[in-house]
Specification:
about 140 residues
Length: about 140
């Protein structure tokens, strides 16, 4: 049930032989992420449970979910980009049906992130799901 954007990331990951290459690709995705303006980096958009500073700015327009995000850590910016590829442009009512753990597992992220990073990803996913559920 992944989006086309997420499938592109998954296909790219298949070309990499080792985790270091995948890790670098995640960082590159983070570098390409449009930064969130400082005006949006406020307590209301901050995600609790992340070791790094993380802000998510979700939006639902015409029933379709999307979000922008930012972090002070480059790898986390990349993880935000991966989550954006997974969740952006999905109808809000379908967000809960996305098995993020399984989809991220396809990329090998579940096995290669530290416990703190995994907790942060889980916190971001919960924030996304909660916002979509409130729509």
């Amino acid at each position: 049930m992944a989006t086309e954007a997420f499938e592109e990331i998954a296909q790219t990951f298949e070309f990499f032989d080792d985790w270091e290459d995948r890790y670098r690709h995640v960082i590159d995705l983070g570098r390409a992420l449009e930064p969130l303006e400082d005006a949006f980096k406020v307590p209301a958009t901050k995600v609790d449970g992340c070791a790094s500073q993380v802000w998510l700015l979700p939006k639902i327009a015409d029933g379709v979910f999307s979000f922008r995000g930012d972090s002070d850590a480059m790898i986390v910016r990349g993880l935000i980009a991966v989550l954006a590829a997974l969740y952006n442009d999905v109808p809000a009512g379908e967000i809960a049906a996305i098995d993020a753990h399984a989809e991220l597992g396809r990329l090998g992220l579940n096995d290669h992130l530290s416990a703190q990073r995994s907790n942060g990803v889980r916190a971001m996913i919960e924030c996304i799901q909660m916002t979509a559920a409130q729509a």
